[in-house]
């Protein structure tokens, strides 16, 4: 007799539930296994990447560095101190004026006007098209920028230092809501606000931070997660906690400007976003350049392309077309007004926050759409593509489980689960501003290409 | 044939599950009903109270007024403006020096010293024992006070106005943490802080609120619930949001004191508690004096007795012995150091916050003990003894369900479920200060007595 038939069968079922249901109806014990097909065309590369003997240790080292980072806000500096003349930074992987989307062009035009490089928007656009300014990604200058992420010399930057590994990261100051440069607006009120930020806000904050000394952002972010922020599209708690810390020192460091500075910060719940982005950049940078690691150390979008960088593959970008977010729209705007996904703010997801921490932030669904259960589901699914649970960033509603952190390209390819990103939505026409907020899936190509490069490097 | 046997039986099972299980095992359809015995000795009174034809409408009116209240912080006033000379207020139902617990005596001694009525603690105690000061409950003067709740003329009070019904409620300013008068401490550092509050903090906040105008506390509390506060033992978000609102105006209204005022408020996450207590008092007061209503309009403790007041029964107190909270202790303190439950802060539970809103505040379990699931269970059980779900105070984690609000004495008696109170724990020896925080069940007697009075009033 066939030995298979000598005892009662016990069947392991995989994938769709049909076989499992049929067997159970016949009282055959089964063990169902959740399984998804890997991303198309990745089977061979996946096998090669998984065979890398360095991988396990390299990933443990890389994600250990990411989660051990202790980012502190140490200062505020004018970009002119750090940026060579004639260079503007922008969000996402490298982009040219020709391929730039509406909001990216709008922000570049605004920066050109702010710097006095053109008399009006048409001249600014002409000069940018003619290459009068060198465009470089923020990420290649140790910085990150939300939405268009444009940084020009007379803007100010938060300076964040990782006390564990010594790295430094920068992010621009948040301009507030409505028509703002980062969403591609460049009207007179936008430029006037940026000039006030250059003249008043930047110096006041710089003097304030000299007074407070370094502010522990890891602790502040951990607290904000206990208070319903996910640190990408909800920063209400973090902004409030930071303002509490800064307020007495603002009064002492800049008494003449204190009231307007405090009023400006209080007027914008996203003020902390940029601080948190720099903290995330400092942490993910600590995980860079570990040979053999398949850990994602940056995800970023320029409004045209979505790009990822991987720890074991240096500064190379792996890109795919940026998708259009699905979410809630402001006023009379709708999906037809939306620009494809834009900004370096996906550094929050890369560090285990934002879409990955949505279970900590039930109220976020009022801003990006969906139900509370969707937010919990989103976070739970991200544990399948990440290498660790953050030891300090915890989710009270999941019994204080750490947030999923450390996206592994091989896990993305193997499960077909793409990182959950929650994001603001920029109007596609230059000069519009914000039109909504929602969720967006990154293009699978970016991860597939990174995986192929890992397999190639492994040969 | 007995008509009961002419068709298949369908059995409704009540209480313990034994009968239900036995019938189900025999494939008899059952409808199990959750049921608890009413509080002992309440059956007749319950029948009488439930028979009151006014009850349904009276309760709808009362709880409608409670949830429609729109409390606004309108000012800060010195208690001397409102308090007749020679009177001190205290928390809970009326109490005499003879029956006062350690922390209540400690706070009264401190107030006596603060007012210059005695040269030292012994003289203060002697004079208080001799009746040199009239002791009256805060609640009888439109006020509430946390823990000992002692108010003397040179303390300042938050003034909250209910814009819907026009009522006004007061609460003292929160002193901060550690050794503080409200926990029964009265050392030199306690008195020095109170003198600074009288000289600097009170006037600065009064000038600030004149500048900001009324601050909408209903909106602020609703936001804080979205940010993980339950507004009794967790007020971190509410304190942060209030400080954000006040900060620019503090700078303008009291430039010389702004930094120290902001530093003081930032140093104490419970700063908002007292504001929220006044807001809760304004709302519950709006529900008072509806003839026939069995709604609880106050729960309060003086460290010896726990008392409730009921809408349809005027200003009468129904009391039972205050229990000792069960929770987490600070440092080397333990249950043997704990005083019985004390303070008017149960006004938060009376208005649908605190223990009733714990599901909104998973992080609270780190402060009062237990697991996140316990917090969710506590809130869910309170829907069984309340008349409404708050239309504005919502719990994101329960799909934005309103908090349970409006305790009904008849529902408490019928279910035997007592209100869940989360609270600070005072040291039982006068002068000690805070020793912990935890949960406490009110004495069933207080509710039984109120029910008997309702039945009596109904004759």
Automatic annotation (TrEMBL), chains A, B:
Protein name: DUF1116 domain-containing protein
Record-linked InterPro entries: AllG-like (IPR009499), OXTCase_su_AllG_h-dom (IPR024033)
Source species taxonomy: Bacteria, Bacillati, Actinomycetota, Actinomycetes, Streptosporangiales
Top-level taxon of origin: Bacteria
